[in-house]
Amino acid sequence: MSLCLDTPLTELAGVGQVRAKKLEKLGLVQAGDLLAYYPRDYEDRRQVFSVRQAPLDRRACIRAMAAERPRLERVRKGLELVRVKAADYTGVLHLTFFNQSYAARAIHPGEEYIFFGAVEEQGRRRSMVNPIFERADRQSVTGCIMPVYPLTAGISNHLMASLARQVLPCAGALDETLPQSVRQEYHLAGLEFSVRNIHFPQDGQALELARRRLAFEELFYLAAGLSFLKKRREGSGPGRAVPARPVEEFLALLPFAPTAAQRRVMEQVAADLASGQPMNRLVQGDVGSGKTAVAAFAAWLCARGGAQTALMAPTEVLAGQHFRSLSALLSPAGVRVGLLTGSLPAAEKKKTRAALARGELDLVVGTHALISQGVEFRDLALMVADEQHRFGVAQRAALAAKGHRPHVLVMSATPIPRTLALIIYGDLDVSVIDQLPPGRTPVETYVIGEDKRQRMYGFIRRQAQAGRQAYIICPAVEEAQADQPSPTPELKAVTAYAGHLQSQVFPDLRLGVLHGKMKPREKQTAMDAFARGEIQVLVATTVVEVGVDVPNASLIVIENADRFGLSQLHQLRGRVGRGEHRSYCVLVTSTRSPESLGRLRTLASTTDGFQISEEDLKARGPGDFFGNRQHGLPQMKLADLAGDMRLLSQAQQAALRLLEQDPRLERPENRPVLERVRRLFADTPDIFN
Ligand code: ADP
Ligand code: MG
Fold first, then answer.
1. I want to staple 86 with a disulfide (CB 3.0 to 4.6 A). Which of 64, 308, 345, 669 is the partner?
2. pLDDT for position 506
3. pTM for this entry
């Protein structure tokens, strides 16, 4: 049979209908798909040991001769054992196979085999259970660097490797996917070589060359796609020009003087809005740096220009808060502000929708529902996304495709490490508010164990008595045995724990509860009561994580702190230290793990959000960092978005140069690049319309 790239996998040895279905789940249908299905790791099986010298700390290959006829035993129904001894000049290896009766037929006395597995030792006796084996003169899965593939139920790595080996000869039929000039300039290996060696590397160096070339390619197409999008947007007609106004008019509304950083960013935003091109700007600023004022300024400009603004927040709690503070700030200037969230009564929603359509509101604050639920605007000029990491490439494209071509302002406190920001927001202009309002002292942070719990309670009481407020954050809503709240439960659960605190610890204080499972209205009531100071201690889950602003709160206690990511803890800590009061963050943990404690101490020793997120990224990787594909970018298979900084900037440089020469990718030799970009962003709706 001669294989080509589009040969269905069912034609390969070992693939029937059942397995074909399972492979399809992994996106594998044709031979060519397998070539592009890269190993996630490798196992070095090159070194072959004698029985006595084989290492005990990892799986290893042993070359030995079968010393007897294998014995097959039926221990009971459903359990068959094959036992056989193998030997070399250094000793005897006892082999046992569970439910692999074929081993009894495949192993012949007097033949030499390579056995691959974990060696166990009891006294001088060495043994292996269920090793992989093959005849020493017909090695295919031993004596080499073996690929380790991502798998699914019913598909073994052994099968995957065998399939990959079967289709490997097709690699020669692949069309080279990087322009020759790029390959030469960056010393990149050819495609066929790279594909062969990513699956079955000749040696470590070949693997490195293959990996570098294929990762470069991924980054190259990602960068090309993103700058292509940006160029298209810039070239695809004017946006709405919002005339600039003297900034002093706006500043007169603010209860404080802006920082220099806020002022600078306001100027950048005003210039974007007036330019006639749709703005696409990310405002990055650490928690408490005052991003809301920038958004308010942009909305004010649009309202003055007779156009509308929509501000989108990730939670109803935050939307409500923004609605109140923006109304207070802007209504004296005649800006009409509305709120639109899912939990409002239907009649109210209807009224707000109608007002938006008629142009009787200048600014609407809401949740994601704002763009998804067919809300119509009379004249939407600006979309602000606050703390929405999900508001990525795809959403912006969807918005633009609605035909509004509104200006877009994305605000984020998650200090995205520079490497990631470059990719995720590669098509955005970035402003940074790198300064906190004056008079803020850094939040004092302490890591404590259970032994200091009573002292911590005493501290909460003293803060409350001094007129301050406190948050206590717990990781989960319900406890396994919620009827048995103990004072130091493994996992502090909000409702049970709050009940315990109110009755046993703080009968004299006013406590409140806030968690995600409450009805939106109840949440709002609790949040309002806390904002007014009626609740002194708010026991909450991470629903308060982003954006919540109660300047009188001066203490945040985080229970089971080791369960949170560092960036998340940093966000939570940002709930305090927002006013003039000296503020504290107490991280409670009973962990003894030196790594966990080390991470928590990092947080105690720095308030630099960037440093913290770099640490977080190192510990958890970019996937976790943003949750499941939250950044809305295509998945990378090989490229490490956090680590390959040098490769990334090279790939980006190469992509930019290509687009400079051929901005719309119209030249025949660049058609494959355009096709690839199209496929890469296929999940992103309407990008190419
Ligand atoms: P974030 O960047 O985290 O969204 P906010 O916009 O919520 O920050 O601002 C945090 C707090 O600081 C708010 O109470 C806000 O009123 C206040 N604030 C913002 N800018 C200034 C400033 N320049 N001077 C004093 N207080 C400010
Ligand atoms: Mg904010």
1. 64
2. 94
3. 0.65
